[in-house]
Design goal:
Elements (H helix, E strand, L loop, with lengths): L7 E2 L4 E3 L2 E3 L4 E2 L2 E2 L4 E3 L2 E4 L3 E4 L7 H9 L9 E4 L4 H4 L2 H8 L3 E4 L1 H11 L6 E2 L6 E3 L2 E7 L9 E5 L4 E5 L18 H16 L3 H13 L6 E4 L9 H13 L5 E6 L5 H15 L3 E6 L5 H8 L4 E9 L2 E2 L1 H13 L5 E8 L5 H11 L3 E2 L4 E4 L4 H22 L4
Parallel strand pairs: 8-9, 9-10, 10-11, 15-16, 17-18, 17-19, 19-21, 21-22, 21-23
Antiparallel strand pairs: 1-2, 2-7, 3-6, 4-5, 7-8, 12-13, 13-14, 14-15, 19-20
Helix pairs in contact: 5-7, 5-9, 6-7, 8-12, 10-11
The chain binds MU-OXO-diiron.
The site of MU-OXO-diiron has 9 residues, from helix 2.
């Protein structure tokens, strides 16, 4: 087989042999405008070991990169850290191509791989936190349930002081560079936060436990090799620290105002409410849904202390794009938010009340009753918008304090 794709050396024993997906724009509902990578790694011990695979469509890219280092048939072991199809879609085809002697996964991974691929071959469960040797190298795998699925685990290669962290510490970002230290800080921060907000936010408690496990390894980690985005070979503490901050979900003096509009009234209200909060010293992100998608909203909510949601009433209900965002945010379980609902209506006026109920259901502390304006706001309506913005800002400053 010719090898149009090359492996990238990561450490003494490890090569990156993953795939770059330049074209993905939607990852199960999360907009990935900068693409993604599916990282897999080849460990060249006495016997080669493959760590994870890639999405089904990228099997040839993976095999090509592996073949640039070693004969495919020389791979003796395969460790699957996470069963989601972006890391295992090509597993059956890869197993057929390399024919490894043994395949390993977490106990939950053994079940998940069985339920996905119904393969007629043994997958060996790895014992949590118990060191083992493969190819003359020393590994320890740790279960990290719900970061991101119940089967997830991370695997530490002691010889290279390197952590294979599967979805942990990753991001959806396709670039020609493989290492975080080659990329702009702003890019890393933006895409890292977006990934955390849209994938890991509901599992923040489990993330905190993962960070404790990493810290309790009791060893220096020189490299973190996630299954998406850049590899960390310098400053691993930086990504660990960011994940710690995001998992803590401490509210800041920042408000997100998200809404859609039919004839412009809810848009006017959102902008006036936003300016009123800004006048009170709150950082405001105004997010009309004609310009922003649900993933962008979730990203801004990650470090916000307030969430205000507006809708026109349409057919006795909430505008569809607003309902979409509320459903999405509810699933992500953001914590420590206060906020309010607002909207405009013609005759029945259920929209803002339904948004209010949805926010209450998300355990958002409601600062005021929903502000519902008939047709088009007049000067009294604008005053009501300013009052709502000022009330939310005042409560936010009370909760967060003046320092943030
Ligand atoms: Fe990248 Fe949970 O899969």
């Amino acid at each position: 087989m010719s090898s149009p794709f090359e492996a990238v050396k990561v450490s003494e024993h490890v090569y990156w042999v993953g795939a770059i997906d330049w074209s993905i724009t939607d990852f199960h509902g999360y907009s990935t405008r900068r693409g993604s990578t599916y990282n897999a790694y080849l460990v060249m011990g006495d016997d080669p070991i493959l760590i994870d695979t890639v999405k089904a469509a990228y099997k040839d890219e993976l095999l090509s990169r592996v073949a640039s280092v070693t004969d495919l048939k020389s791979i003796r072991y395969l460790i699957s850290n996470h069963s989601e199809p972006d890391h295992t879609g090509s597993l059956p085809a890869v197993l057929a191509a390399v024919e490894p002697e043994k395949v390993f996964a977490s106990p939950m991974g053994v079940k998940a791989l069985g339920a996905h691929y119904h393969m007629d071959r043994e997958i060996i469960p790895i014992k949590d936190a118990e060191p083992y040797e493969l190819g003359g190298l020393s590994f320890t795998s740790f279960e990290t349930r719900m970061v991101h699925w119940p089967d997830s685990m991370i695997t530490y290669l002691a010889d290279d002081r390197l952590l294979f962290s599967q979805d942990g510490f990753g991001m959806h970002l396709a670039t020609s560079d493989r290492f975080a230290d080659q990329m702009e800080d702003r890019l890393i921060f933006e895409e890292g936060a977006k990934y955390y907000a849209n994938i890991l936010l509901p599992y923040s408690n489990q993330v905190t436990r993962l960070l404790e496990k990493v810290s309790n390894l009791g060893v220096e980690i020189d490299l973190i090799c996630p299954d998406h985005g850049p590899i960390w070979r310098k400053g691993c503490d930086r990504i660990l620290g960011l994940w710690g901050e995001w998992a803590a979900q401490r509210p800041t003096k920042k408000a997100v105002v998200v809404y859609d509009t039919m004839w412009g009234s809810t848009d006017l209200m959102g902008r006036v409410i936003g300016e009123a909060m800004q006048a009170e010293g709150v950082a405001v992100e105004v997010m009309p849904l004609k310009a922003c998608d649900r993933a962008a909203v979730a990203t801004q909510v990650l470090d916000a202390g307030a969430l205000l949601v507006g809708t026109p009433t349409l057919n006795n209900g909430v505008f569809p794009t607003v309902a979409d965002v509320l459903t999405y945010l509810k699933g992500l379980k953001p914590k420590n938010l206060l906020g309010a609902a607002f909207g405009s209506y013609g005759w029945s006026g259920e929209g803002a009340k339904l948004v209010n109920e949805a926010l209450a259901d998300m355990k958002v502390e409601l600062v005021a009753d929903p502000l519902n304006i008939n047709y088009v706001p007049d000067e009294d309506g604008f005053d009501a918008c300013r009052s709502l913005g000022a009330a939310v800002a005042a409560r936010l400053k009370e909760v967060v304090g003046s320092g943030s």
